[in-house]
Design goal:
The chain is α/β, with parallel strands linked by helices. Helix content is 48%, strand content 13%. It has 20 helices and 12 strands. Strands 6-5-4-7-8-12-11 form a 7-stranded mixed β-sheet, sandwiched between helices. Strands 1-3-2 form a 3-stranded antiparallel β-sheet. Bound molecules: S-adenosylmethionine. The site of S-adenosylmethionine has 17 residues, from loops.
């Protein structure tokens, strides 16, 4: 567990920081700054590089160092979690409209107070708290300017929606999870979750949201934004799966994007390989919107179909059935039903491609990598009594559905949070 002392850790941090700084200087790139953020080469989504790996390693070592110097009692207190959580001010900054009203050139607290008709001391407190997380910077007394992070908040509606979903749906649901677990121990039903305890409804989250259009809209917008966050781009699925090269456009490949939302993943796949035709399946309202948004150039190769994925798959004999970020929304009982519903449609050799997290096994990855997956495991528990799965969980799930599923690939594309779990139908 504890393999090295402070000096040794510090030396490793120093050496890695020097290498990173030198690598950037050699490439003529600026160092990261709070004002401008990271140079593109260090983005999670950029091509793997020595500099990018150095950044990753530094983040891990620094977290270890910091945790090592934190009092053990503080590690367990809610205050520590909130100390590290900018959400406690950023949520109000978004809700009160401060984020989107904040001008590109910066603003005084008094001007913002006048513009938004909000008490200036409250605005000051909120911005000053954000600034302790490098979200805004107090350039002179009572005058705040943007940092790279606050600029994202000002410029991206999707980011603001993501904050609202985090603060108003997700975190409250996690805080009610224990209550739900006590009331419904071992339940696999989605409506027995923390989100239900928080919202006082017996309907599973997505059915309940269907009757709350404003919240549903915020949720859908946040999900769309989520797909663009570093590490979640559909490009990882496109580039890592053997779709063939774009030149190889003569052999057609039919892909069914099950629970494919508005079709953004299918768009990337179709653009990646001209041989691919996609059928995007989702609920009727989502399908209508996806169809409306589809660029004309893709009309011939992407079609939409309303389909409930718990019912028998209507597209028979396709080459690939994709389940991207679908199964982690459901407990094993319901995943079993979703996969079983595919079987009547599968031809021998058909692929079922699951694009979801694979939670690392014990000590297989740095704890921060595992924590990211395990955080989402807790979120899925809180929302739908669902879960993230380890490689063994995926194997067990597929085998439990039908032994004719052969696991042919488990691949974690570098940079991506989502892995590719490919099963080939041997029936
Ligand atoms: C987390 S989203 C994933 C969307 C997309 N696959 C992606 O990777 O971004 C889950 C999707 O499942 C859809 N969904 C939920 N229940 C469904 C059902 N019973 N039948 C079909 N789609 C469903 C939702 O509407 C949503 O678009």
């Amino acid at each position: 567990m504890d393999q090295s002392n402070l000096k040794k850790r510090a030396e490793e941090i120093l050496a890695t920081a020097y290498s990173l700084s030198d690598a950037l200087a050699n490439l003529g790139l600026p160092e990261p700054s709070f004002e401008h953020g990271l140079p593109a080469i260090l983005d999670t989504d950029s091509v793997q590089s020595e500099a990018g790996n150095g950044r990753q390693r530094l983040l891990q070592m620094l977290d270890e160092f910091r945790s090592l110097l934190t009092e053990p009692t503080l590690m367990l207190t809610p205050e520590l979690a909130s100390l590290r959580n900018p959400l406690i001010s950023v949520h109000s900054i978004v809700r009160l409209g401060i984020a989107e009203s904040f001008p590109p050139e910066g603003a005084s607290v008094q001007d913002l107070a006048k513009k938004l008709n909000i008490n200036h001391s409250l605005i000051r407190r909120l911005l000053a708290h954000g600034a302790t997380h490098h979200i805004y910077y107090e350039a002179s007394p009572d005058v705040f300017v943007h940092t790279a992070a606050s600029r994202v908040l000002a410029e991206n509606e999707g980011m603001r929606k993501w904050i609202l979903i985090g603060a108003e749906e997700l975190i409250p649901a996690t805080l009610k999870t224990a209550e739900a677990l006590v009331e419904f121990p071992n339940s696999e039903e989605p409506e027995h979750s923390g989100w239900n305890a928080q919202n006082g409804t017996n309907l599973p989250i997505f059915r309940a949201l269907a009757a709350m259009p404003d919240r549903a809209k915020t949720f859908a917008g946040a999900m769309q934004w989520h797909a663009m966050l570093p590490g979640f781009a559909p490009k990882y699925l496109a580039s890592c799966f053997p779709w063939g090269s774009p030149e190889n456009s003569d052999a057609g490949l039919t892909v069914v994007d099950v629970g494919g939302g508005l079709g953004h993943v299918s768009r990337v796949l179709a653009n990646h390989n001209l041989a691919v035709s996609c059928i995007v399946q989702d609920s009727p309202d989502v399908v209508l919107q996806g169809r409306d948004d589809l660029p004309q150039a893709l009309h011939e190769r992407i079609t939409f179909q309303a389909h409930d994925f718990f019912l028998e798959q209507p597209v028979k004999g396709a080459d690939v059935y994709i389940l991207r970020l679908v199964l982690h929304d459901w407990s094993d009982k319901y995943c079993h039903k979703i996969i079983t519903a595919l079987i009547p449609a599968l031809k021998p050799g058909a692929k079922v491609v699951i694009n979801d997290r694979v939670v690392p096994g014990r000590h297989e990855a740095h704890y921060l990598v595992e924590r990211e997956a395990r955080d989402y495991d807790m979120y899925m528990l809180a929302f739908q009594n669902a879960k993230e799965r380890t490689a063994n969980d995926w194997v067990a799930l597929l085998k439990a559905v039908d032994a004719r599923f052969e696991l042919t690939k488990v691949f974690q594309p570098p940079g991506s949070y989502l892995a590719i779990v490919e099963a080939t139908w041997q029936g």
